[in-house]
Structure formats: structure tokens, C-alpha cells
Specification:
globular; mainly beta; 448 residues; 21-stranded mixed sheet
């Protein structure tokens, strides 16, 4: 530990709460000082033990909990020590506010970190960024559609958890896992993301679960770019964005093409809101979009109320779209339920539909002509339809403020969270179709 940090530690150690651990931790670069009993972890309270969140993190060792009291904190917090838990006492009252002067509210660049029960807002790029990329962690590049890290080798951050976090009014993404593996984003809320509310990019195999979140009033609710293999997006409410959900391949990030995601049990509805940021590609009125992705399973989602299309399957000119399965979904009140539209020269084979509740597809009769299973070499048909004109968007800074969100249980009394090296992955067969009653719960954002 640097001497300055040691002096700060000495000043506050008498007030820190010692918590017995199950074993010694050798990480964190703090060996040789002999300041703690073996296996002991502490709770570092902000502002009682450290004046800022960043100061508290600088004191933390693996296994410690940084517990933050209500207040608005004007700082950018970087967690570069492994297995630290950052938690707010109150999700809505612990606010990290970037005041549009910093790229990230919370930047996680060490494994095993948990970020819980707080709000991040008004950052020029991301509310929470989890990354193993040094270039992304440096804050640039970070405009347009994400991070182009040039010739930087792919380095993964391994294991993370983001839960009960509210991310609102951020200039790129609300919660962003980039070049990361083995993580969970759960029970969180994202709004006002100028690109998307929740984003996972550049991972293979991902071993990432995005579950039980709410994303509304973003350009895109959830986006996965070059996010492949054991990538699960399940049981989320993606309502009232411009586009609900996309999974795609993009040359700007490494590890393309995208393949092997499971998108199951999500409510995707009324994604055509005008009072939202406008993404660069101008998408609007679309529930689920798959662009140049392959071997994805889109299963038991409820997709309703889209003026363009419930699900669009397409491709860029040089990335094939292969063997996507669309099964047991319910589509309702969409101008087009499922539409396939491909560039003529792009390979597109083996895409199929099975057991969906459908009204209109483009091309027509897809449920019959592209029924699962289809031979792997069978070219998928293509068609076109008239898309509605998208209204202009609004600045992300003007998106409506979120309502209070559910709290992390016993936030002030529960100890640090242990993040597993690899998360438990859901079983797709056990994920049900969301009930239609969830549509009424989102009437506010689905009204326009």
C-alpha cells in the first residue's frame, strides 16, 4: 500500500467494522503491513470512514464492502481492486452524478467486483462500465456506437456482478460490459441511454446473464454486439424504447461474427417512443433486431405493439445470418410480426420458425416455408415492407427521471457479496412466456 494510503488507513482503521472471513486473501497488493488479522474483511463507510467513494475504494482489500450513505457524489469511481463490493444504503438516494463532466460513473477494471443498490447518472459515456480493455478504461474512444480499440489484444475481465443499479441519462450506455466474461447484470433499471440502456460487447464465450432488468426510454433497451456463446438475455422488461433489443455483428468490435445467444422470456413492447434519444442508425418501432447474428435462440418472448416490426432478421453486406431459431414466441399488435430482409449477396441459411403465435410475416407464410427444422444449406427468403417514419429524438439529458426502484434487500446490514468465478447459467427450457398482465404494468411508457 502506498504510504499516503497507509496514513489514511491509520486514521480511520479504528472506526471500520471488522467482519470475519472464511480465509486469507493474498490479492490487492497490500502484503507485508500486518494491519489485519488473517481472513478479516471490513466495511468501509462513506462518508463516516472515508470522505468520498473513491477514497473508500482506495482503502479496500479483496473481500471488503464499501457502504455508501445517502447523498449526491460528484466523482468518477474506479474499482481496480479485485473482489470489492460497492453498495449504496439506498438505491435512489445514493447518487453518483457525473454532471456531464466525466465519461463514467463507475468503472470496474478488476475481477470479482459487485456494484449494487445505487444510481449513476449524467455521464458523458457510461453509467457503469465493466471492462478488461485498457483503452476502454482510459475513456477514449467512446463515441458513436461504442469502442473501437484498434490493435489492442482482447483481454477479458473475468467475473462481475451489477445488481439493483439505476442508470439514467448517460451519453452512451447505462450499464456496459465490454471485453468481459463470467458476469451477471440483474434487477437493474436503465433509461436515457443515448445508445442503449444495457450493452454487452466483445466476448466469446461470454458466460454472461442479463436478467430481470427494466430498460425504458433508451435508444435501444438492450444491445449485444459480437457477444457470443453462453450469452443469456432473459426475463427482462424492454418497453418504451425506440428499439427493444438487438443482437448483432459489427466490425468496430473484435470477435465477430455474433453467435449463440439465448433471448428468452422477455417482455418487449411498445418500443417506439418519441421522447427518447435517437441512435445513429435511426431505428424505431422495432421489438427485436438480429443483424448479422447466427445460431441464436429467440424463445418464449412476448413481443407486442410495434409500428415497424416485432422481430427483424437482417444482415450487413458481408456477415452471414445463419441458423437462428425463433420458437414459441407470442406476437401481437405489430405492423409486421416477423420480417426477414437481407442484402442479396449475403449468405442467410437455416433460419427458422416453430410454434409462434403470429399474424403477419414478411415474406408471407414464413411459419410454413421456413418451419424448423430446415436443411442447413437452405437459403432463407427475403422481403421488404414500408417502415414508418421515425420521429426526431431528444437529448439524453432531457429524458424523464425514473421512479423509485426496488431496493437491494438489507443493504445496510448484509456483508460483502461473493461473486462466483462463473455464474449459474439459466436453463432455457425452464424460462416461461411472460404473462400478458405485464403489459398493463408498463402502460405509462406504452401509451405513445
Amino acid at each position: 500500500m502506498p504510504r499516503l494510503a497507509f496514513r489514511v488507513w491509520a486514521a480511520v482503521v479504528g472506526t471500520l467494522t471488522l467482519v470475519a472471513g472464511c480465509g486469507g486473501d493474498g490479492g490487492g497488493g497490500d502484503s507485508g503491513e500486518g494491519r489485519r488479522p488473517a481472513g478479516a474483511h471490513v466495511t468501509i463507510r462513506v462518508p463516516a470512514d472515508a470522505p468520498t467513494i473513491s477514497a473508500a475504494v482506495s482503502l479496500a482489500q479483496p473481500g471488503d464492502l464499501v457502504l455508501v450513505a445517502p447523498g449526491v457524489y460528484h466523482e468518477s469511481v474506479r474499482i481496480d481492486r479485485p473482489r470489492v463490493t460497492l453498495r449504496g444504503v439506498s438505491r435512489d438516494k445514493v447518487v453518483i452524478d457525473g454532471r456531464l463532466r466525466q465519461p463514467n460513473g463507475v468503472l470496474v477494471s478488476a475481477p470479482g467486483v459487485a456494484v449494487q443498490n445505487l444510481t449513476v447518472r449524467n455521464n458523458t459515456q457510461n453509467g457503469v462500465l465493466i471492462t478488461g480493455s485498457a483503452k476502454a478504461a482510459a475513456g477514449l474512444p467512446g463515441t458513436g456506437d461504442g469502442y473501437d480499440t484498434g490493435d489492442e489484444p482482447v483481454t477479458f475481465l473475468k467475473s462481475f456482478l451489477v445488481s439493483h443499479v439505476t442508470a439514467t441519462r448517460n451519453g452512451l450506455y447505462g450499464i456496459y460490459a465490454f471485453s468481459a466474461q463470467n458476469g451477471v447484470i440483474a434487477h437493474s433499471y436503465a433509461s436515457g441511454g443515448a445508445d442503449s440502456g444495457i450493452y454487452v460487447g466483445q466476448c466469446k464465450p461470454c458466460n454472461i446473464v442479463v436478467r430481470d432488468n427494466v430498460a425504458e426510454l433508451n435508444a435501444v433497451g438492450y444491445e449485444g454486439t459480437n457477444a457470443s456463446e453462453d450469452m443469456y438475455v432473459v426475463r427482462n422488461r424492454l418497453v418504451g424504447n425506440r428499439v427493444g433489443l438487438t443482437t448483432n455483428s459489427n466490425h468496430q468490435e473484435k470477435l465477430l461474427p455474433q453467435k449463440g445467444s439465448v433471448i428468452a422470456g422477455n417482455l418487449v413492447a411498445a418500443n417506439q417512443q418519441a421522447a427518447t434519444p435517437q441512435q445513429a442508425d435511426g431505428g424505431w418501432g422495432i421489438g427485436i433486431g438480429i443483424d448479422g447474428g447466427s445460431d441464436n435462440q429467440i424463445v418464449r418472448n412476448r413481443v407486442a405493439g410495434h409500428r415497424n416490426a416485432g422481430l427483424v432478421l437482417t444482415a450487413t453486406a458481408d456477415i452471414p445470418t445463419l441458423a437462428n431459431q425463433i420458437a414459441e414466441n407470442t406476437f401481437a399488435d405489430n405492423a409486421v410480426d416477423v420480417g426477414w430482409t437481407f442484402p442479396t449477396a449475403t449468405p442467410r441459411r437455416g433460419n427458422c420458425l416453430r410454434g409462434n403465435e403470429l399474424r403477419r410475416t414478411v415474406p408471407a407464410r414464413l411459419a410454413t416455408t421456413a418451419a424448423c427444422p430446415v436443411p442447413a444449406g437452405t437459403s432463407s427468403p427475403t422481403g421488404t415492407w414500408t417502415a414508418p417514419t421515425a420521429p426526431g429524438g431528444i437529448p439524453f439529458t432531457e429524458v424523464a427521471a425514473p421512479a423509485p426502484q426496488p431496493q437491494f434487500p438489507d443493504a445496510a446490514t448484509t456483508g460483502a457479496t461473493t461473486v462466483p468465478p462463473v455464474p449459474a447459467l439459466p436453463k432455457t427450457a425452464n424460462i416461461p412466456l411472460p404473462p400478458v398482465s405485464l403489459l398493463a404494468a408498463n402502460a405509462r411508457v406504452g401509451a405513445s
